[in-house]
């Protein structure tokens, strides 16, 4: 099997080595000649350079490929993707060829490109998670598009991807650009889980006075059971790292958190679709709040510093609360994926989506089996529900910030306890005559139900 790869940055280089190691013949190109030389050198060291061909231009790449061609793009999202596609058309790709955008492109761009290039070649998308390490040794791969071009390359990508219990973490999750939407939501869940772990750390460190080593030990204990996950494991490792003078590394790091945009896209698309994912949105805003001083509203968002209060936390209750909150972050993401799938008629398979997340990716966790069981599993977690309520209350009493923890408790409470929406809708009708709906299903106005002599002015 022969595949081409355009883009030999960190992800491209490592994916290239993975592809070659798994037995594919690879034709690779990067506009920076040094990137190609670096890849060739690494391939020689690992003993499989005979399956690698570095080319100096895209025309040479297209000439070398057997038809129908399969070309992967790992270039920065945006205009560069279209630039490369146009150059490949000029180089001779045809309607039977498949070009797969494997970068972090916005799914809306993928939809537009599929239409734009439909008479030139088959355009498909694939989200890849796992970072450089995953790309090299087996990432999670969330592909999408029509079956045509994928049929000939799926068997090889199933080998290139990570595997869990003998099953590949590659899947064609749905149609059109759903692969990039799924990867976007994967990143939104990632934001929420990272922030949630940081909030648990914050509560233990400043609210309870625990040391970094004590918190790392607690995370290790949790990881021995059903809460084992990649993000919890790396958090524990980070907390154990010390500088040469024995200062905890985490205490040397500036508090500002960066972002590349996929978390923001998740929040924006959830709002556009009208699907509530408050934990995922709160995680994005939490990062924004760490960068307040760099915004044009810095002056208006600067207040006097306050001291947090000490709180007593039941560690077993904290574990249960973290467990439920983690599950709910995933469930919010899956609801968003399913809602988008129905809206765009993508036919996304959630079981296949979860399978891609079981290994190789950043949000892999042992409790994905519980998430796959659906809301019924969560409905049985009565002790965890009480724990989440109690821990959220204790956290707020500390005076510290817990955006994802609080948002997750609010999300679950809103869906499982009586709502206060009836008063808000009454307010809307009072000042704007937007209408109300009674429990009997009647649509009317306040004035249809009661006489109002004079409204408040």
From TrEMBL:
InterPro entries: 6-PGluconate_DH-like_C_sf, 6PGD_dom2, 6PGDH_C, 6PGDH_Gnd/GntZ, 6PGDH_NADP-bd, NAD(P)-bd_dom_sf, Pgluconate_DH
Gene3D superfamilies: N-(1-d-carboxylethyl)-l-norvaline Dehydrogenase, domain 2, NAD(P)-binding Rossmann-like Domain
Presence of keyword Membrane: no
Recorded superkingdom: Bacteria
Catalytic activity: 6-phospho-D-gluconate + NADP(+) = D-ribulose 5-phosphate + CO2 + NADPH
Entry keyword set: Gluconate utilization, NADP, Oxidoreductase, Pentose shunt
UniProt pathway: Carbohydrate degradation; pentose phosphate pathway; D-ribulose 5-phosphate from D-glucose 6-phosphate (oxidative stage): step 3/3
Signal sequence, renumbered to the chain: none
EC numbers for this chain: 1.1.1.44
Keyword Oxidoreductase belongs to the record: yes
Subunit structure: Homodimer.
Role noted for this protein: Catalyzes the oxidative decarboxylation of 6-phosphogluconate to ribulose 5-phosphate and CO(2), with concomitant reduction of NADP to NADPH.
Protein name according to UniProt: 6-phosphogluconate dehydrogenase, decarboxylating
Gene of this entry: gndA
